[in-house]
Amino acid sequence: MTKVITNKSINLMEKLSLFSEHWSPKVIAEMNDYQFKLVKLKGEFTWHKHEHTDETFLVLKGEMTILLRDKTIKLCENELYVVPKGVEHKPVAEQECQVLIIEPKGVINTGDADSELTADNDVWI
Amino acid sequence: MTKVITNKSINLMEKLSLFSEHWSPKVIAEMNDYQFKLVKLKGEFTWHKHEHTDETFLVLKGEMTILLRDKTIKLCENELYVVPKGVEHKPVAEQECQVLIIEPKGVINTGDADSELTADNDVWI
């Protein structure tokens, strides 16, 4: 897809209201070769890692947990965490949690994992 | 500064409570060679551009306007805008506005402009 340059600001809550499915990131903006993606989480994701990049989670609404092999990161509203490159992680959310993900274009949600949770990539909303 | 890897999530509001000066971005996290910076804006900034990179503004509290030469971008809470690479812009905020900036490490706040508003770079909080 060609680069989208908007003429106005992008409202995160408006964009979040446009979809309801879980674990299916939607691209809302690009910055250089990075993308901003909104995602709704509920339940347990799969353990995976991204070999070539860090990945940022910013919680907009609700709460989530990022399980790492050696620790657990709890994220509440307005909290962010950068999962380092190559580090195995498993996102979990007991109740629905709405998240802004920032990462390079082309990153697959399930990373290196062979999973039925792998979502279509580069889906804009 | 060497890369900071935190063992817990970063709370944006807590970090914002740690400083009060305007137009002085504070780094709170890194993702690959990008940085997340918090800044408080009030008044008028200087016209400038960043020749080599896009720059993302996400409003956390308050309202701001980004003047471009050919249009005006209004940003309310939970709205983001990506200023394209090489595009002249002038951030303005009538009342204090609290913003998360995302851009590559090393970007100077005043870009190509010769300005007394140029802030120290890579200041962590």
Could you name the key traits of this structure?
homodimer; about 120 residues; mainly beta; Jelly Rolls; seven-stranded antiparallel β-sheet; 1 helix; 8 strands; isomerase activity (chains A, B); isomerase (chains A, B); RmlC-like_jellyroll (chains A, B); Mannose-6-phosphate isomerase-like protein (Cupin superfamily) (chains A, B)
What does this structure look like?
Chains A, B: Keywords: Isomerase. Chains A, B: Residues 43-101 form the Cupin type-2 domain. Chains A, B: This is Mannose-6-phosphate isomerase-like protein (Cupin superfamily). Chains A, B: Pfam families: Cupin_2 (PF07883). The structure is a homodimer of 125-residue chains. The first copy, chain A, has 125 residues and is mainly beta. Chain A has a single domain, classed as Jelly Rolls, CATH 2.60.120. Helices cover 4% and strands 45% of the residues of chain A. Chain A is built from 1 helix and 8 strands. The first copy, chain A, has one helix at residues 12-16; strands at residues 10-11, 26-31, 34-44, 55-61, 64-68, 72-75, 79-83, 89-104. The first copy, chain A, is globular and about 45 Å long. The model of chain A has no long low-confidence stretch (mean pLDDT 95).
Tell me briefly what this model is.
The structure is a homodimer of 125-residue chains. Chain A contains one helix and eight strands. Chain A has one helix at 12-16, and strands spanning 10-11, 26-31, 34-44, 55-61, 64-68, 72-75, 79-83, 89-104.
Q: Going by CATH, what is the homologous superfamily of chain A? A: Jelly Rolls
Structural class of chain A: mainly beta
- Share of helical residues of chain A: under 10%
Would you list the SSEs of chain A in sequence order as H and E? EHEEEEEEE
For the biggest sheet of chain A, the summary is: 7 strands, antiparallel
Mean pLDDT of chain A: 95
Strand composition percent of chain A = 35-45%
Assign the CATH topology of chain A: Jelly Rolls
Instruction: Tell how many strands the DSSP assignment of chain A holds.
Output: 8
Report the end-to-end length of chain A measured between terminal Cα atoms: 13 Å
InterPro entries (chains A, B): Cupin_2, PKS_Associated_Protein, RmlC-like_jellyroll, RmlC_Cupin_sf
Protein name (chains A, B): Mannose-6-phosphate isomerase-like protein (Cupin superfamily)
Keywords (chains A, B): Isomerase
Pfam family, one (chains A, B): Cupin_2
